[in-house]
Structures are given as structure tokens and as C-alpha cells.
Amino acid sequence: MSHIKKDKVRETPAVSTASLPDIVFMLLFFFMVATTMREVTLKVAVNKPQATEIQKLERKDLVTYIYVGTPRDETLYGTEPRVQLDDQLGTVDDVQTFVVVAREEINEAEQPLMTVSIKADGEVKMGLISDIKQELRKAQALKINYSTMPAIDAAGMIESNL
Amino acid sequence: MKSRRSSSFNAGSTADIAFLLLVFFLLVTTMQSEVGMQRKLPQLSNETPTAPIADHNILPIFVNSKGDLMVNQEYLELDGLRSLVKTFVDNNKLGTCTYCQGDGLENLSDSPKKAVVSITSDRNASYATYISVQNEIAAAYNELRNEMAVREYGVEFDDLKGDVQEIILRSYPMIVSEAQVELGSAVATAP
């Protein structure tokens, strides 16, 4: 009897970790479904403005992105807002070539459906944006999308954008 | 006994493998979904537009470098823009628009199909202000379309079928013209 008692005290019930892989796999699948792959490493800081009247961007393979904002590496690129095309910082003059090249990569039948998404920081001046839009018109890329953050209500949007 | 024992394998490392995969996906993916405002830019042409638009069919909106708005030669707060655009578009001066609810004022648009909202922004205005203005204009049109859907079909615009939505979209076409003020030039004349 005493022998059995001794044994019971020494044995601490271990937490079963058998379900741990299942839990982690569940988390894994959640993240695989809910997230999208990063397209490029951002070299400019983009804090998108908010808007309420927005649509979802469909057909990601037909979308070309143009990033506009102040460079993250200020010592190297300065503080003036710059345009990022793919992985490089460019100027407004590079936009036309970039868009034409990007369109060439799309299947010919679907080229008219190409959308250019402008992801610009809210602080960027309209002059730069207008110049980019003018370049896009020169490149015949007329379908554009102003990338924004979804806002819950109009009052909050106005406040955050000012 | 021997064969039964070999059928179970050590599953202890599956958790580690799954964690590794999880960390990988956490690092290379982003949570943000892609949303934005779709717009169509006008064709680039050297010809000057021939058909002149009557003054009362244009709602001129000016945005200065500080983000202030001037609409119809008057200062306006951003939160008043939506209702102003709605009254302008829905005005129905000619009385030809059967679905309009406007008062038919003299100085506002003939019909929604003729109404042009014009945004002129200073080069030093911020992009966020411009997006807010675009957003308010879009909101005004969306409200008008939704009101028409409820009035004529009894359901919200989003719940209507595609072809009926098309009819409403054509009834309230969103026509926005954009111009840009060069640095230092006067903003006296409407485009």
C-alpha cells in the first residue's frame, strides 16, 4: 500500500500536447487564407488617406502599382516625395515607360483591362499626383485606382485626412 | 505486439514544423485588402473640346494649398459638399428628368446627365484633401442612386440586379472634370 501511495505523489499529470500541432495548423491556415503576399519592399513611406466610397480591387494580375511618398531612407534619398516603380525609386518621367512595359507583360486580350493603382501618401502634394496622372494619360493607361484605407464614417474620414 | 508498436510515430515535431510555416507566412504576407476608388482618366488629345458647357451645368470646386474649398464662388466646409453636390445634380432645371427630386433652381444643372462637377486643385494641395473631395462627390452620387433605387424599385441599390443597376447608373452618370492650377496663377475664372 505504501508503495503505491508514494508513486502517486511523484507522478505529476503532464499536459497533453497532442493537439498543439492541430491548433498551430489552424492558425497557419487562417493566415494563409486571410493575407496576401507582399508585392514589393516599400522604399517610400505610404500612409494612405481614408475614404468611404470604395470598391475592392479585382483581378490582381492586371494591376500595376505606383507608390508615392517620402523616402524611408532620408539620408540617401532626401525628404522630397518620390515615385517608386517596382523595387526602384524613379521620377515622374519614368512612369510612362514603366506602365508601357508592365502592359506588355499582360496577355494581349486583357491589356485594355489593365488598372494602375496609385498608392500615395496623404501628405503628398497634388502637383506630383497630377504629373503622374498626365504621364499615365500619355501611356494610354486610363483605368486608375486611388488606393485608400477604408473609413468607418464620413466624419472620421474628414478628420483624419485634414 | 511488435507490429502494433511500430504503427505509431513520434508526432512531437509536427508542432515545430507548423510553427515554422506559420512564422514564414506571418513574415511574407500582409493583412491589408486592396481597396480604393476606381476612376477613368480622359483621353489625351490636342484638340480643344468643341461643345461648350453652360455655366449653370458646371459645379466648380476649387481646392487651395491649405485644403480649403471654394464652391460656386463661396467658401465651403468639406462636410457641406455632399449635400451641395446632391442638390446640384438633382436640380432638374429643364423639368425633363422624370426621376429627379430637385427644385429646378435657375443657377443649377439642367439634368443629371448634363451636370458636370469640376475639381480644380492647387499644386500644393494635399492628396488627402483631394481624395476627401472625390469621396464626397462619389458619396453624393451614390446617395442619389440609392434614393432612386428605393423610390422606383423599393429596394436598396446594392440589392438590385445588374441590368437594373445599369439603368440607375445611366440615370445618374458621374461626370467629374479635373483641372489643375499652375503655381502663382489666378483662380478667378471658372474653367
TrEMBL record, chain A:
GO cellular component, one term: plasma membrane
Coiled coil start-end: none
Segments passing through the bilayer: 12-34
Record's keyword annotation contains Kinase: no
Subcellular location: Cell membrane
InterPro entries assigned: ExbD
GO biological process, one term: protein transport
UniProt main location, coarse: membrane
GO molecular function, one term: transmembrane transporter activity
Keyword Transmembrane helix found: yes
Keywords: Cell membrane, Membrane, Protein transport, Transmembrane, Transmembrane helix, Transport
Topological type in the membrane: Single-pass membrane protein; Single-pass type II membrane protein
Family: Belongs to the ExbD/TolR family.
Protein name: Biopolymer transporter ExbD
TrEMBL record, chain B:
Membrane topology of this protein: Single-pass membrane protein; Single-pass type II membrane protein
Record keywords, A-Z: Cell membrane, Membrane, Protein transport, Transmembrane, Transmembrane helix, Transport
GO biological process: protein transport
Keyword Lipoprotein in record: no
Keyword Endoplasmic reticulum on entry: no
Major subcellular site: membrane
Subcellular location field: Cell membrane
Cellular component per GO, a single term: plasma membrane
Superkingdom field: Bacteria
Single annotated GO MF: transmembrane transporter activity
InterPro entries registered for this protein in UniProt: ExbD
Family statement: Belongs to the ExbD/TolR family.
Protein name: Biopolymer transporter ExbD
